[in-house]
Amino acid sequence: MKQKSLDAILLLGLRLKNGSEPEKELIDRVKVAYEAFQSGVAPVIIACGGQVKEGEKTEAEAMEAILVQMGVSLEHIIREDKSKITYENIQNARAILNKPRPRVAVVTSDYHVRRSLLLCRMHKMKAIAFSAKTPEDELKAYRKKLEWRLYIDTLLGFQKPGSVRPKWYRFIVDHLTPKK
After folding, report:
1. What's the domain count of the chain?
2. Quick one: which of 53, 76, 77, 143 has the most CB atoms within 10 Å?
3. 100 CB burial (10 A radius; 0-12, 13-18, 19+)
4. Is the pTM above the cut of 0.85?
5. Structural domain of residue 73, as residue ranges?
């Protein structure tokens, strides 16, 4: 797929520190989306992410503010601020695009690419990924392990809101998830 043929850049959010402050990992994602936008990959950036708790700033608002500071005009930013999980990010962005088979660039952290692309395919979007390197901190190993669990969740269809995992699920996931 030619990069110039994309309809949008989907910038996936991340929980805000203290309900209002973006963490370094989220800022790094925004920088990657900005670079892709500046290179002409797509005409718009869809900032995806809602509130975790009532009254907090949405992830989309936080990302939009950073993009505007970097020089992206509001006419090139679309806020998807209803989603709480990655599945909803992709589902809601798909609805915003409202095309038979949208072409998108997904921007997320390196450990999160595999599942994000799978979710795009499940929602009938052609997607490529641009990833931000995960910051070196105490959470990096945890996040990589969590991503494997969530990828397996997605493959088995348990990532949809309201899904109930069967009793055997934890046993399977514990054995399929890399230990490091």
Report:
1. 1
2. 77
3. exposed
4. no
5. 3-136
